[in-house]
Design a protein that fits this description.
Helix 3 packs across helix 4 and helix 4 crosses helix 5. By secondary structure, this protein is an alpha/beta fold. It folds into two domains: about 220 residues, Rossmann fold, CATH 3.40.50.300; about 70 residues, ACT domain (Alpha-Beta Plaits). It has eleven helices and 14 strands. The longest helix is centred in the middle third of the chain and has 14 residues. Strands 6-7-8-3-9-10 form a six-stranded mixed beta sheet, with helices on both faces. The protein is elongated. About 35% of the residues are buried.
């Protein structure tokens, strides 16, 4: 287990991370999301022991990353956003070198290197110079080195960058397989990947945590009962005008033609009770309702909604409230 308590990092007076708390449970894949400059890479570098924190603690399987750095780092496999590979080394040579740095016994190195290459499908690249590999293969070599030493905790920062769709699927399946023996923190800008492999997510913005929960709970809580998806037959201009004239309809957006005479509308309401009025008005004006249902936001929509509002939420109930924007943070570059 990894426990992060009141973690902060300042560069001069500029805050990169501001007193955050979360944990990574045993055999869990935790998504770590945020826009550029949110503090994701800074946090992961601190967890991995590459950066010192300004305040707070990080505990890896009971070891403090500052006070017991050697023991804590033995529990960690880290793939940063830019893979830490040496371009003038060959793939197998590099992995053997990393295994030595990690203290893998000589009797176990060959087996671990072979296993990591096989898992990342780079065995046929073993004698290639790393500088001659594509970006995707360099990424996979970086992932392979993170697995050496059988670390209990894996920190993966954009592990699918540069991979083609087939390789992305392979890495996704590998991450799900690794969950059996590892706890994983997984950061990615490809939110579909996060949805596919993660159970819980942490969303961070401007150095503060906006939300921590399962993807299902976040999607449900952000949706509330105020957005309807409507499919109806009739002239879109007429239906849009009728909808906007109904008291309690805040906005009508995402109007899309499904087929001739049939259109999709997304409607923002003040309350769910307005739905009955919508149905009555449309039917009274000879507009046929094909389907009407409460909308469900995707993880991408949840992410955009949370990160476009800068005030920290302390409960799921607060996610439903409109909050004022947080003042601009002078720290605007991911470290």
């Amino acid at each position: 287990m990894v426990e992060i308590k009141n973690l902060s990092k300042y560069y001069g007076r500029n805050p990169a991370v501001k007193g955050i708390d979360f944990e990574i449970r045993d055999n869990e894949i935790l998504g770590f999301l945020g826009p550029n400059g949110a503090g994701k890479s800074t946090t992961m570098n601190i967890i991995a022991g590459y950066l010192p924190s300004t305040g707070g603690t990080v505990t890896i399987n009971g070891f403090d990353i500052t006070e017991q750095a050697s023991e804590a780092k033995k529990c960690i496999g880290y793939l940063p956003e830019i893979p830490p590979v040496y371009p003038d080394m060959r793939v197998e040579e590099y992995l053997n070198f990393v295994a030595g740095l990690k203290g893998v016994p000589r009797s176990e190195r060959k087996n671990q290197v072979e296993t990591s290459m096989k898992r990342l499908n780079i065995t046929d690249m073993r004698r290639r110079l790393i500088r001659n590999l594509s970006k995707g293969y360099k990424q996979r070599v970086g992932f392979a080195q993170a697995l050496l030493g059988n670390p209990k905790i894996l920190i993966l920062d954009e592990p699918t960058v540069g991979l083609d769709p087939t390789q992305v699927m392979e890495v996704r399946n590998l991450i799900l397989e690794l969950k059996k023996d590892h706890s994983i923190i997984f950061s990615s800008h490809i939110l579909a990947e996060v949805s596919a492999v993660c159970e819980r997510v942490v969303i961070i913005n401007k150095g503060e945590i906006m939300a921590i929960d399962t993807i299902e709970n976040l999607e449900r809580s952000m949706t509330a009962d105020t957005v309807l998806d409507l499919t109806a037959d009739g002239e879109p201009e007429k239906i849009t005008r009728l909808l906007k004239d109904i008291r309690g309809v805040n906005a009508v957006s995402e109007i899309k033609e499904i087929s001739p005479g049939r259109n999709f509308y997304q409607i923002e309401l003040q309350s769910e009770s307005v739905r009955d009025e919508i149905m009555s008005v449309l039917l009274a004006n000879q507009c046929s309702i094909v389907e009407i249902k409460l909308a469900k936001l995707s993880l991408e929509q949840v992410f955009l909604k949370l990160t476009s509002q800068g005030k920290k939420r302390t409960s799921l109930q607060e996610l439903l409230s409109e909050m004022p924007d947080y003042p601009d943070n002078p720290y605007n570059q991911e470290v």
